[in-house]
Specification:
Chain A is α/β, with parallel strands linked by helices. Chain A is built from 17 helices and 5 strands. In chain A, strands 1-2-3-4-5 form a 5-stranded mixed β-sheet, sandwiched between helices. Chain A is globular. Chain B is mainly alpha-helical. Chain B has a two-stranded antiparallel ribbon. A two-stranded antiparallel ribbon of chain B has the order 3-4. Chain B has 2 domains: 77 residues, no CATH class; 70 residues, no CATH class. The longest helix of chain B is centred in the middle third of the chain and has 34 residues. In chain B, a hairpin with a 5-residue loop joins strand 1 and strand 2. Chain B is 55% helix and 7% strand. The chains are: A alpha/beta, B mainly alpha. Chains A and B meet through helix 9, helix 10, helix 11 and helix 16 of A and helix 1, helix 2 and helix 3 of B.
Chain lengths: 409, 197
């Protein structure tokens, strides 16, 4: 059944949508990824540059959907760049000899096949590598091979996967369910001390998670995607540490997770900077109740993104973040202990880019914040998610304030 | 898009929308009408005791409010409350108009309507109208006074005119006569009513 869902996903996703998953499939086949653009689109027609296990360099251009004669004419220039221009990776000399591959999750239809073949002959005759074409069938085979037998087979896991696969992708990611799926696959196939199985499990959980998280990316739900990639990465790291997998083996997979996370953080920042407010218009009557919580989550991620960039010496648009914080800071709402990571990220950002006093003020606000109704035991309240608290306190902020209680320091 | 709480918001929204519907049902004359939920179809029929049948299409009542992001950020829940009140007012007006139209059509068809011809409300007009309608009586034969639906601005006039029914002997005598006649008719109907075995 999962095989059918993977096929369905692969058939319907666009070229940017399956790029990272394709990179993971290459990793599972022993390729080394030399270059994959942070922004998705590659230069000189090359979305991915990778070295095969036999040392040959492959360059890939990814397309979505069927390629017929008119669409082939549209993309021919890009494909010619892919074939004829050298492969360039950061800090390395241009690679003149490479095998160019046109990849599509659709099929080559009609007269396009003959035309592509003739151009491939022509370019090969002038000294370039022979253009290869990988179509849907081949691609699907590669994806399924990457999973091997490392796919959930038991009913609860299958059910969990289907529920996650068909969720409302504009809503928040169901993190407990997603983490449970990742954990069950991890627990079932890895952690036995057999490195080969653990490495294959890493390949499988990244792809499995990707089929779900990509749909949040497609819905432009950047925070949900960031949360998903964080959960996937945590499982990769857990398997690696538990089974003692060498850094060089699991690092490329983790890099891929990081690339995916970074892309989503970049998109989140772009959106936050472009907006006048953080309002989400669906179900406006309930919006006042959720706005403050959204502000906390969003700005927490934006602050975390800035701190991460800072740690790898990348430029931080601190003035733009400060501007948003000045506008939205008064609307931050803390609804449960689950908000603590956002508060930490924001406090660290303020300390670094604004001042220690502002960071202290935020922490004071957190310490003196209202916590969920006293009818819940402190132990329960500590682990309620923000969404859970918002629903249980559906009377709104006034309801919460009627149960005012200071949290511990 | 930014993180949203769709499931939670939709449940809250449904609850709030439901409360508007409920409040519309409790406003004015709507509160006097018994209600039921129809799960499918586009029309309904009323089968009366006299065998007559009246078919009607369902009519949609809709209202529109603008709730701007700016209002929401400035006034928070108060902005939502204002929008809900506005919706309630629009829907109440629309449903009451619908009911009034229904009453006018039904009374016209039954010949029980009274056209005041532009004259102001008076005790005489009231007696003309109840003379044509079927009054209700309780088990003891006491008349159950009819419900009068009026615009609030008319309440003083109506109270004054109805007060005349008590004060002026001629009017009081006519009213008692109408009630006695209708009580007799009611008794006949009750006597002829076929009881279920």
């Amino acid at each position: 059944m999962i095989e059918r869902l993977i096929e369905n996903w692969l058939t319907n996703v666009n070229e940017l949508g399956y790029q990272l998953a394709f990179g993971q499939v290459l990793l599972s086949q022993g390729y080394t990824i030399l270059h994959m653009s942070r922004h998705g689109r590659g230069e000189h027609g090359k979305d991915i540059i990778a070295k095969a296990p036999d040392g040959i360099i492959y360059t890939f251009q990814l397309k979505g959907g069927d390629i017929n004669l008119p669409s082939w004419r549209d993309i021919r220039g890009e494909v010619e760049d892919l074939v004829r221009l050298p492969a360039q990776t950061a800090g390395q000399a241009p690679i003149l000899v490479h095998v160019p591959v046109l990849v599509t999750n659709g099929e080559i239809v009609g007269d396009a096949a003959e035309s592509i073949s003739r151009y491939a002959d022509l370019w090969e005759a002038s000294g370039s590598g022979r253009l290869l074409v990988w179509q849907r069938g081949e691609l699907l085979k590669m994806f399924l091979e990457a999973h091997g037998s490392f796919l959930p087979k038991e009913r609860p896991d299958l059910k969990r996967f289907v529920q996650l696969f068909a969720a409302d992708f504009e809503d928040r990611l169901d993190r407990p369910r997603f983490a449970r799926l990742m954990w069950e696959v991890t627990r079932t196939f890895a952690l036995e001390g057999k490195k080969t199985k653990s490495i294959r499990t890493i390949d499988s959980i990244i792809l499995l998670g990707y089929y779900i998280i990509e749909q949040y990316e497609d819905a432009e739900n950047w925070v949900a995607a960031c949360e998903g990639w964080s959960i996937i990465a945590a499982h990769v790291m857990y398997i690696a540490s538990k089974d003692g997998i060498p850094d060089r083996i699991y690092r490329p997979a983790l890099d891929l997770c990081w690339l995916a996370l970074s892309r989503n953080l970049d998109k989140l920042n772009e959106e936050v900077f472009a907006r006048k407010d953080l309002v989400e218009p669906r179900y406006m009557f309930a919006e006042p109740l959720t706005y403050g919580s959204r502000a906390t989550i969003t700005l927490g991620w934006v602050a975390a993104s800035a701190l991460t960039r800072l740690s790898v010496s990348e430029p931080v648009q601190s003035h733009r973040i400060i501007k948003v914080l000045q506008r939205e800071g008064k609307r931050l709402q803390f609804v449960s202990e689950a908000d603590w990571p956002y508060v930490v990220a924001l406090a660290l950002f303020l300390e670094r880019f604004v001042g220690a006093r502002e960071a202290d003020n935020l922490l004071n606000l957190w310490v003196n914040t209202e916590v969920p109704p006293v009818s819940w035991t402190p132990q329960q309240a500590r682990y309620w998610s923000g969404g859970g608290v918002l629903w249980r306190g559906k009377g709104g902020p006034s309801h919460l304030s009627s149960n005012k209680r200071q949290s511990g320091s | 898009m930014l993180p949203d709480f769709i499931k939670i918001k939709s449940r809250i929204d449904r609850k709030l929308s439901g409360s508007i519907q409920e409040r519309v049902g409790m406003e004015g004359v709507m509160s006097l009408i018994s209600k039921g939920r129809v799960h499918e179809g586009h029309a309904y029929a009323i089968q009366r005791a006299d065998g007559s049948r009246d078919e009607q299409e369902f009519r949609e009542h809709r209202a529109e409010v603008v709730l701007s992001a700016e209002d929401l950020l400035t006034d928070g829940p108060q902005a939502v409350q204002r929008a809900m009140d506005n919706l309630l007012e629009q829907l109440s007006r629309s449903t009451h108009q619908h009911i009034q139209e229904g009453i006018e059509q039904a009374t016209k068809a039954a010949g029980t309507n009274t056209d005041a011809g532009g004259q102001p409300f008076s005790a005489e007009l009231f007696l003309d109208s109840i003379e044509k309608t079927q009054l209700s009586f309780d088990a003891n034969g006491d008349c159950k006074p009819p419900t009068i639906v009026i615009h609030p601005s008319l309440s003083e006039t109506v109270e004054r005119q109805l007060g005349r029914l008590e004060r002026e002997p001629g009017l009081r005598e006519r009213m008692n006569r109408i009630i006695d006649q209708q009580r007799d008719q009611w008794r006949d109907r009750e006597a002829n009513r076929k009881l279920v075995d």
